[in-house]
Design a protein that fits this description.
Layout lengths: L4 E4 L5 E6 L6 E14 L1 H4 L7 E4 L6 E12 L14 E5 L23 E6 L19 E5 L11 E11 L7
Length: 174
Amino acid sequence: MAGLRYGKGAGGEFTVNATQSGKGDDAQVLVEGVQKTTIAFLDVRTLFATPIEIAPAPATGFANIFRRAGIFKVAGTAYGGVAAGENLAIGYTNAAGLVVSPEIETVGFLDSTADQFRWVEKRSVAIAIVGDINPTAAAILVLKLEDGDITTGDSDLIVWCYYDVVPIVQTVEA
């Protein structure tokens, strides 16, 4: 990181200040962000109809790149209506947004009465997905159900989302 200044940003994230033009105007580039989100049980039930933001939108010209997430389900009444194929996923913007994580199986997770924890990494060739994505500019990351809402259940979810914010617009100087 020679020639770069780095430190802690306003939200506690690691930041790097890099001179973009060589003229002394520093542009702050966020290297990694971490967002903790608690999703209330009533919102968990409707994650298909209304996905929940787990990482804020970056500035114009930047995109969030999902890296990994930890999802903790607090012990409580098991969610009903959980079936094979009704999996959780992380994606951009809303229910129709590009999915950027592997599926998170809900059977044995949301339908359990005990505390549960799941760890998910970014998509990769190893899970039969093309190795690259076309990131959505200035978009939030959301947690969503992929196939219909679920019923009953009273356990909150705590999501720790780890992501990078990268510039997706470059200025070429003559």
